Amino acid sequence: MADDTVVVWDEALLTYDMGDHPLDPVRVELTMALARELGVLDRPGVRLVKPEPADDALLTRVHDPAYLDAVRAAPRDPLFAGFGLGTSDNPVFDGMHEASALIAGATVAAAEAVWRGDARRAVNVAGGLHHAMPARAAGFCVYNDPAVAIARLLDLGAQRIAYVDVDVHHGDGVQEIFYRDPRVLTISLHETPLALFPGTGFPDETGGPGAEGTAVNVPLPPGVGDAGWQRAFHAVVPSVLRAYRPQVLVTQCGADGHRKDPLADLHLSVDGQRATYRTLRALADELCDGRWIATGGGGYALVEVVPRAWTHLLAIATGEPVDPATLTPPGWRDLAARRRPGHEVPLRMTDDVDPSYQPWQPSGEPNAVDRAVAATRKAVFPLLGLDPHDPRD
């Protein structure tokens, strides 16, 4: 296997544009510009690959043909309604099918490169549209590119795929699509569904008949910061992945758990997000011979957070992490100020937060985070042959 990293990129990915909407493609544009100015995309072994749109054969591995017809037809019909389209969350826009199919094709290209051994890791920061359902748009997502890519990996012969979702919202679409398939493990850490869209992702959602233990959910209370989030992540994710022994790791790396994100209530920092990406790469190296496919996802602090978080993701996927103390380049600051006047433009790649944490222990008076961890471990660990009370598991 080549020890290279594929970054799937084309400016056409920015055409997934819902207009005056939180999911603004400027966040992807500024990410790629920041990564380029910091030299991340020019590292040895980094290959930029131009994607092709996913065709109907690929998309219908996940989505109903009637839904594809609706996505194509909606921009031509001003009175169109149905399939979750035409709502404030999922407004109809010109070229919607083409833009959505291109994002799906980009994540499929990343998956194919890794599975075929052309690269050890691959990234599509424009992807991660994890809420789309087989016959319905939801949560800003038209086609579910992580699920389409996972289906493609299954078709190529993968037997154990792990999907880890660290977006602030539950990865409901990917979970739903593979809920009864034991070949796909889905893990999601997210703000509690009692407080946040989409209202799913409770600990007792553990997989359908024949796939018990292959859905893992860690719902966290509002206000959790880096220490609590890292504590929960490390109390669940490594043990579950080691028990499942995946051949390839797919991750959705939404940046909307950040304390400045306007759509949610977790209090993570860019430093904490960077630490999570480092752990995900280490787990891929330990368990999957390095095979790691990473996507973006949510993230609505368009200038302040997303470009820095995902540049850290790109750096970790392509080689050495960027030093948190690194200054953002003046040229990038100028671009960000021009593209989004009035937004705070960060001067450094850090929030000056130490993301260290105390490992979970099953003793003592539990706080809200520990109660969430205990509920998840109790629900799913026995199904995987793990002891929910043993911190070594």
From TrEMBL:
<keyword id="KW-0006">Acetoin catabolism</keyword>
<dbReference type="InterPro" id="IPR003085">
    <property type="entry name" value="AcuC"/>
</dbReference>
<comment type="similarity">
    <text>Belongs to the histone deacetylase family.</text>
</comment>
<protein>
    <recommendedName>
        <fullName>Acetoin utilization protein AcuC</fullName>
    </recommendedName>
</protein>
<dbReference type="InterPro" id="IPR037138">
    <property type="entry name" value="His_deacetylse_dom_sf"/>
</dbReference>
<dbReference type="InterPro" id="IPR023801">
    <property type="entry name" value="His_deacetylse_dom"/>
</dbReference>
<feature type="region of interest" description="Disordered">
    <location>
        <begin position="346"/>
        <end position="367"/>
    </location>
</feature>
<dbReference type="InterPro" id="IPR000286">
    <property type="entry name" value="HDACs"/>
</dbReference>
<dbReference type="Pfam" id="PF00850">
    <property type="entry name" value="Hist_deacetyl"/>
</dbReference>
<feature type="domain" description="Histone deacetylase">
    <location>
        <begin position="21"/>
        <end position="315"/>
    </location>
</feature>
<comment type="pathway">
    <text>Ketone degradation; acetoin degradation.</text>
</comment>
<dbReference type="InterPro" id="IPR023696">
    <property type="entry name" value="Ureohydrolase_dom_sf"/>
</dbReference>
